[in-house]
Write a structure and sequence with these properties.
Number of strands: 4
Number of helices: 2
Helix content: 10-25%
Strand order of the largest sheet: 1-4
Largest sheet: 2 strands, antiparallel
Distance between the termini: 9 Å
Shape: globular
Number of domains: 1
CATH topology: Alpha-Beta Plaits
Length: about 70
């Protein structure tokens, strides 16, 4: 599974992009997005998902819904 950014809540602060160990987060349009193919949920690098950890807006970086 991967994580996603709720675009309507994203403040485009950029904190998540620099914390992502897999380079899955990029700025697109007016918000940040997570490339689901690159997202590893930080497994093997951190115990928690760094995007969700550093995001200033709660519940903006969430598990991807199918």
């Amino acid at each position: 599974m991967a994580f996603q950014i709720v675009s309507s809540q994203c403040t485009a602060c950029g904190a998540c992009e620099f914390e992502c160990p897999s380079g899955a987060i990029k700025f697109k349009g007016e918000t940040y997005i997570i490339d689901a193919k690159k997202c590893t949920e930080c497994e093997g690098a951190f115990d928690t998902q760094q995007c969700a950890q550093v995001c200033p807006v709660p519940k903006t970086c969430i598990p991807l819904k199918h």
